[in-house]
Amino acid sequence: MERTKILVTGGAGYIGSHAVVELYKAGYQPVIVDNFANSQESALTGIEQILGVKVPFHRIDCNDMEALRAVFAEEGSLRGVIHFAAFKAVGESVAKPLEYYQNNVGSLLTLLAVMREFGVSALVFSSSCTVYGVPDALPVTEQTPTKKANSPYGATKQMCEDILRDVVAAPDATLRTILLRYFNPIGAHDSALIGELPLGVPQNLIPYVTQTAAGIREKLTIYGDTYDTPDGTNIRDYIHVVDLAEAHVVAVRRLLEGHSDAVETFNVGTGHGNSVLEVVQAFERASGQKLNYVIGPPRPGDVPAIYADVTKATQELGFTTTTSLEDSLASAWKWQQTLKG
């Protein structure tokens, strides 16, 4: 039986590569588009080793309309798209706002134009809890007001969500979309064949933790310990990347089976917050490694605390996470050790 083709932009990236694996395991045929701006070709090898098959791949930039058009034409019969391709570092976005707006908003506009041209109407969009800004109350639900974003990265995700709502609301619209607002993905595939591959100095906490434990970094800097949280450090909702990938499979199925509204939004997290210090302590327990860390000044753009209310995803998608924080961190350490070797 022929597999249903799903285009995965940014499919060689951290979350994208895990989603490709889960899509294939669920019976779909993923087609990867990536330009390796924020990923590495080794992810494709890892995917192939896990699945035992080569997944179709096109090396293009999603801002290049002619190249994207050529992919749609060559592949034919694409039924849906998961759009991961975006720059994603909060701190970097503060330093490089223009690049973030051009890439993140521009690539979505290009993709939507090509989808319309080729009659592809199902889109799962990679959004972020950064759209909530600094929330007034926790946990955040999908009805929590989106406030002014704390960073250009967050602003691009807000803009993309607004664009999608407007496109879906047009009188002749065929697009149907699910917006998945991720919290903080961590960990790696249990095979340790794919995982997070930061280019240069990591912008995210967990790769910095694992690189410090591996001796690649001298020390971990915790940015701020005077936030209004129990131990003064930032609180985030850390979700294992394979759990997050599985949420995309559920969302794709919902769109293709026609069970979704024209546009739907879901928080994808664990429903529980952990502070940076709690993560450090959990990593030490999971790995048996002692971490060298220091306290530094707060970073611009960082929200003090945010974690998800996941009731809607549980009730309407039937989606729940299954991996504990310590197991997620153990998988990240296993992946780091593979890289070190």
From TrEMBL:
Keyword Plastid recorded: no
Domain NAD-dependent epimerase/dehydratase: 6-269
Pfam families: Epimerase (PF01370)
Keywords, in A-Z order: Carbohydrate metabolism, Galactose metabolism, Isomerase, NAD
Pathway membership, UniProt: Carbohydrate metabolism; galactose metabolism
Catalyzed reactions per annotation: UDP-alpha-D-glucose = UDP-alpha-D-galactose
Keyword hit for NAD: yes
Swiss-Prot/TrEMBL cofactor(s): NAD(+)
Enzyme nomenclature, EC number: 5.1.3.2
TM region positions: none
Molecular function in Gene Ontology: UDP-glucose 4-epimerase activity
Subunit structure: Homodimer.
Family membership noted in the UniProt record: Belongs to the NAD(P)-dependent epimerase/dehydratase family.
Name recorded for this polypeptide: UDP-glucose 4-epimerase
Gene: galE
